[in-house]
Amino acid sequence: MKKNLLLVLWIVPVLMPNKIWSQVNEFPYPEGFEQTFMNQNENFIPNWFGNYVDGTRIFQEDIYTRTGDHSLGLWAVVEEGEDEEEVEIFTQVHLDLSGMENVAATFWVATRATGAMKHVKLFMQVSTDGGLSFGSRVLMGSDHRGFNNVDSDFKEFVFALHPEAFDNSNVILRFLTKAGARKGTAAKVLIDDVYIFAAEHDIFPPLALEPKPLSINQLSIEFSEPVNNTALNVSNYSLNSIPVEGVAEISPEGDVVILNLTSPIAIGKYYELGIANIEDLAGNVMLPMTSEIIYNPLQEGLVITEIMYDEPPAEHNDNLEFIELYNVTDAPIELGGLRIKGGITSGRLPEYTLEPGAYWITAKNATVFTDFFGIPAYEWHGANLSNDEPETIYIINTDHHSDVQIDLVTYSVGSPWPEGAAGGGYSMVLCDATLDNNDPLNWSEATQFAGTYNENKIYASPGKGCCTSEILVDAGPDKIVYTGLPEKFSCTELSVIVSGGIPPYTYSWTSLPASGKPKVEVCPAVTTKYIVTVTDAEGCSGIDEITVLVSNILGNDKIELCYSGRTLSVPPAAVKNYLSKGAELGSCETVTSIAGLGEEMVEINIFPNPSTGPVNFSFKPLVPAEAAAKIVNFSGQNMRTLFSGKVLANREYNCDLNAGTWPAGIYFFVVKTEGHTYSRQFIVRK
Predict the structure, then answer these.
(1) Residue pLDDT, tens place only, 589-637
(2) Residue 206 domain-assigned?
(3) DSSP state letter for 490
(4) Which of 399, 593, 634, 663 has its CA 20 to 30 A from that of 464?
(5) Which runs of consecutive H residues, i.e. helices, occur in 86-128?
(6) What is the pTM (predicted TM-score) of this model?
(7) What is the spatial distance between Cα 72 and Cα 61, in angstroms, rounded to a whole number?
(8) H/E element holding 323?
(9) Residues near 415 by Cβ (< 8 Å), separated by ≥ 6?
């Protein structure tokens, strides 16, 4: 064992010099990245090292440069085969700053777009112990988001090193890019013409690096270098443009200020901290700045209880995707300062108080979600939840980068997780929020019918408790009424049948706000869709809809009626008289076929029904025969002949029709064969 240890100790000094002791010691130091370093590991040019140089994530750009033939490229993308939420790519240079003070680096940065709406951040960091630890990150870029994903021109940046790096032989200057790793790629960052030098005296103003609350009564502000007593003047600080009241303290090192507030800040509320007129020890005055701060000490109590990640159809944009959070505690929870990450990027959550036992929703498309479910939602930023691979969603508290994890769910698509959630139109629901929500056995498919979206039934209960029984609501088929006829033809009764859930039920009809009954009579003047919502004793609900079409039948020249077994064609003025004698609207052929007399020898299908456009009609005779298929309206008039000729037994015949230009109303698909007539009703909507 001792022999092997000696071997290791001998190898390490041989391998380490290129990485540790090779360093820049001649200044000023320019670097234009002209030396070839493609496909090199670690030390890709003298004194520089960092991530693996693979020509993709760290690469030598030979097209877009500021000067010379090359620049350095950093692209924060996931390494092949890896699965990460965020990715950081860095490159760094080792500096011997012995005997040097007032050291700074200037460099030029540009970006190249990758076609996605994702930002990338470029940070500067300094290590004074050879890379064992690094100081605070200093963000370069136009705002707190860093660089946009666009093609941009080279722009010069200046970074003054912390005084701890002065007269230090073991300094590392790091360039670090960071971006989210899910769904899309961030811009490529290009760096050129790095220049590291020592100024004759301190000419660089201080920067406030990471203002953060320590409590509701204390704020901490770290500066890029020691500051003088101007930092003790509380009038140099403001919250939401109002001067701070309290007392300021400076750390023994001189680069951290603690503000003790007379009036505490509120938990979960965003503030703009303004800082101005602060000087460093050389008297350089900082540029005024504002920084967003928030304090939220939450560590537990917020649980992910419902997820809709793949509503049908599969090729759709999944605009109904949502995530539901639940306050499992007996005290209010402030959401400000929290984030939802993983499969999505929620950004900061809004200032919102979630009461005990209450739910809160974030959705992929808040407008579509609210229009469909009828409840408000907060719209997340970023991509869809995955529809075909495992996904992790977690809530973290990013208050001053604490990154406390409050809840986490990792689910997979299909069994053992609820299979209906994988494109079947169901959300998946955690009924008991006190149980482990990473156990698939604690999740089930939603039982509550929420409505029809893109001709698919959706089952979900966002903003509500877990419903253990599905409530089935049936409002019956669409109906038609007529204008210009007796009242019994211009009005109709709507009736709903309910099963499931826990009685008693309450009823709510859209367009009939004061009804509240399972049966209502309506006399619409125009075609109207009525949606009925039935809610049970537990607050669970189901819905259905019915359309009442309004037709002005008296607008026709002749109206077909079935009277005493004969089809008559009469003027509109005579219709009322015949109806009073027992006549029925439509031809006798249509009326008879609707009754469905005798055993049907033809199977008929219509899809979709109702329709607003293309319709497929199919029929399958059970015996060979001569057959004809046509479309007739409710008055018995032939609208379109679709088929005529011989048919074979048990063979399906299909006919397509675009009814989108037809008037809204009820029509019939009529098939005649061997003296028999069969028909099915279908409806055209607008």
Answers:
(1) 544 443 333 456 888 888 888 788 899 999 998 888 889 999 887 666 7
(2) no
(3) H
(4) 399
(5) none
(6) 0.66
(7) 6
(8) strand 322-327
(9) none
